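Hey, resending since the last one bounced:
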Amino acid sequence: MKKVLAALVGATMVLSAGIAAAAEVKGAIKSMNMEARTVTIDTTTVTFPQTVSLAGYIVGTAVTITYTTAGTTNTATAIAKVAK
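The structure tokens again:
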């Protein structure tokens, strides 16, 4: 019984290590690199996959970016302008 429990706990730890943590950052866009597809707000830099459009966003635009973190890479899942 102890071996089965230990195996289950170990498997759970291994599987959960691969799950990315979800987060959100709000603020004005500080900088953008369209070639690298990155946006920086304050000190948070987020990379945008091709599936997330950056059309209509410029430096200074107030936005909310939803992203996941895997290791040291923040990858955007959504971006939205903040209503004034």
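Helices lie at 2-17.

Sorry for the duplicate.
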